[in-house]
TrEMBL record:
One of its GO terms (cellular component) is chloroplast. The lineage of its organism: Eukaryota, Sar, Alveolata, Dinophyceae, Suessiales. The gene is FCPE. This is FCPE protein. It comes from Symbiodinium necroappetens.
C-alpha cells in the first residue's frame, strides 16, 4: 500500500525548488516511479542509505531474548507503539 502511495502522490504534489542545485535538477523535473531511480544523484542515494542504516542500527537493535524481528517499542509492521495514540473516546470528548 505504501508503494502505491509513492506512485500516486507525485502525480498531484511536488516539492518546490531543487533536488540537486549543483546538477540543476528540480523536483518538478523528476520522473515518477521506477524511472526516478536512475535520475537521483549518487549523493542522494548515499543520504538515503545512510539514513536507513542509521535508523535500523540505532532504533532496531535485535535483543537476543526476543524473537527475530520483534523489536522493543515497535508493534505490527514496525510501527512504533507510541505512534498510535490510545485515547478513551469518552475522555477525548
Amino acid at each position: 500500500m505504501l508503494a502505491c502511495v509513492g506512485y500516486i502522490i507525485p502525480e498531484y504534489f511536488r516539492w518546490p525548488g531543487y533536488l540537486s542545485p549543483e546538477k540543476g535538477l528540480k523536483f518538478s523535473e523528476m520522473p515518477h516511479g521506477i524511472a526516478a531511480i536512475s535520475k537521483v544523484p549518487l549523493e542522494g542515494w548515499l543520504q538515503i542509505v545512510l539514513f536507513i542504516g542509521h535508523y535500523e542500527g540505532y532504533f532496531w537493535r535485535q535483543d537476543a531474548k526476543r524473537a527475530p524481528g520483534d523489536f522493543e517499542g515497535y508493534g505490527f509492521l514496525g510501527v512504533g507503539k507510541n505512534f498510535i495514540i490510545n485515547v478513551d473516546p469518552i475522555e477525548f470528548q
